[in-house]
Design a protein that fits this description.
Length: 555
């Protein structure tokens, strides 16, 4: 009886659904999607390798095949060819393969440029059907192998690169302080470490007769007068200063006090200038005395943080030691321990170097990468600035201590970086024996420390060029490629721009003090050993490095 009642209820519901007000609803036809056709094949210059093509000639031919014959009149407006900025490039479309294949013959494209070929769904077949999904093909043209500038001798090219790069520190130096701006867009923000490199560049420029000794001395007097009144924190300068007022500009919220590493770069530059301006006249004598006062005022030992076993990078009057970054090797900070150990007033003992910096030998490596054994540091050596910043002044040739031979270390690090780029395990377009060098630099949309372990496809000219003393043949190859082959893409008002990516067709327009300075200085060290000889001649440097256990013909 129960089942009969259920069946009766179901029948009544069905009857109600079919009738409304005594009439039947109209029958609704099913929705039929519009007919489409599909993409089936792609060839660029006769080959298929996905939807991105590198190293193309300036007149590539693109053939796109579909499942249906194409209406040629619908190509216009539905197949576009533009560069990355959206500027249209012209092309000629034709059909082949029973009209199933659209052949795109381009006009002459620009070299080293990315183009996007887009096929929209509005492209119609001959029966009026639309394309199922749109298509985008990336077409990246090759470097034009012609020379962009007249050939000059290698020696002339070295001088030209030094002279053009020197303009960053001379022409673009901050007008009030004389210090180096952080980068070419920094306004009043000057950098303490980059200014140390700039002071070494200034000495190189005087030696090369880019400016007179008198003009160089006047600039140094301006710099030193500013530094005497600029804000300091237990003797250490901040990373950034306001070039007008000398007040700290915070590098980050808690990094608003002393930066011991940046200070060490600055002090190395000042000591170099002191050794260069060795005249007996009143102006040069006063300059040397002022530099001594500034150097002797850095409280290196205080940055041990309560007399500890290592140096610390930062101290803030607001946040104290909150940054909590001990300075440990192996990286760019060897010079910090050397400057601290050499201080006549606030020196550190060898135990701080051994325990803090060298970590009692834990900074040693000894493994082989790309056929080269690396004495110190992380796998594959890290970014190349590790072998640049400290060695602008410290001469690594014949230098050793209990932990490494530093001539071996710097050359091995550079060769690993070069060999990695040459091997190009990630397949980054553009890498070669002529186009190499991974270090900290601007990248597209930001900044990073590039290395074989952090490789996004960006080459920084400073990496190879500042390695000139270590790998002169490989570095000269890179310099010629950057200058002659890439031309104005990488060469500008202040020498080479900071970085570029042939993979992404991106070229920086920036120049940075910490990248431009080492180019001038290390080329000069390669040519004359000028900065090495000056810095290593300082009596307190000799004494300090000997106390740390270093031996060298230069000590």
């Amino acid at each position: 009886m129960k089942n009969i009642q259920i069946y009766t209820l179901i029948f009544s519901l069905l009857l109600f659904a079919c009738k409304k007000g005594g009439t039947s609803d109209p029958v609704i036809d099913p929705v039929i999607p519009p007919a489409t056709y599909a993409f089936s094949d792609l060839k660029v210059n006769g080959t298929f390798s996905g939807f991105t093509y590198y190293g193309l000639n300036n007149n590539p031919v693109v053939k796109i095949t579909f499942s249906s014959p194409i209406n040629i009149s619908s190509v216009s407006g539905n197949i576009t060819l533009t560069d990355a900025a959206g500027n249209a490039a012209t092309y000629t479309p034709t059909l082949e393969n029973n009209d199933n294949t659209v052949v795109i013959t381009t006009s002459t494209l620009q070299p080293i440029t990315k183009y996007i070929l887009t096929v929209n769904t509005g492209l119609l077949s001959k029966t009026g059907n639309k394309l199922q999904t749109s298509i985008a093909v990336n077409l990246i043209t090759a470097v034009d192998d012609t020379d962009k500038f007249p050939r000059i001798t290698d020696d002339e090219l070295l001088t030209l690169v030094q002279k053009q790069t020197f303009k960053y520190f001379w022409d673009f130096g901050h007008p009030t302080s004389g210090l180096a701006r952080e980068r070419n867009t920094s306004g009043n923000t000057v950098t303490s470490g980059g200014s140390g490199f700039g002071i070494m560049a200034l000495v190189s420029g005087i030696s090369r007769n880019f400016i007179s000794r008198a003009d160089g001395l006047a600039r140094m007097q301006k710099i030193v007068a500013f530094l005497k009144t600029a804000e300091r924190f237990h003797g250490a300068y901040p990373h950034w200063l306001d070039g007008n007022t000398g007040k700290v500009i915070p590098f980050s919220t808690k990094d608003n006090g002393g930066d011991l590493v940046e200070t060490s770069f600055l002090m190395a530059g000042l000591i170099t200038a002191r050794q260069y301006f060795n005249g007996t006249n009143a102006n040069e004598t006063a300059l040397r005395n002022d530099i001594n006062t500034i150097y002797n005022g850095v409280e290196w030992s205080w940055y041990r943080k309560d007399n500890g076993t290592t140096l610390y990078w930062h101290w803030s009057p607001n946040y104290n030691w909150d940054m909590n970054l001990p300075i440990k090797g192996w990286n760019e900070c060897l010079i910090t321990y050397v400057m601290a150990a050499s201080s006549p007033t606030f020196s550190i003992p060898k135990s701080v170097y051994d325990t803090g910096w060298a970590q009692n030998g834990a900074m040693k490596n000894g493994n082989t990468y790309y056929g080269v054994q690396l004495p110190l540091g992380t796998a594959n050596g890290g970014p190349l600035f590790f072998s640049h910043y400290s060695f602008l002044g410290i001469n690594p040739n014949g230098l050793s201590d209990a932990f490494a031979n530093y001539e071996t270390q710097t050359k091995a690090h550079t060769l690993i970086n070069y060999n990695y780029c040459k091997a190009n395990p990630l397949g980054n377009y553009g890498y070669s024996e002529n186009c190499w060098g991974l270090t900290a630099s601007d990248i597209q949309g930001g900044y990073t420390a590039s290395s074989p372990n952090n490789d996004g496809g960006t080459i920084a000219p400073t990496a190879a060029l500042s390695s000139m003393p270590y790998t002169p043949t490989e570095s000269m190859q890179a310099m010629k490629y950057f200058y002659y082959k890439l031309g104005n893409k990488t060469w500008g008002e202040y020498g080479f721009y900071d970085a570029f990516s042939l993979k992404d067709q991106w070229f920086a327009t920036s120049t940075l003090a910490i990248d431009q300075g080492p180019i001038i200085v290390m080329i000069e060290n390669y040519r004359t050993k000028l900065i090495w000889n000056l810095f290593m001649s300082a009596p307190e440097i000799k004494s300090g490095m000997r106390n740390l256990g270093f031996s060298s013909p230069n000590l």
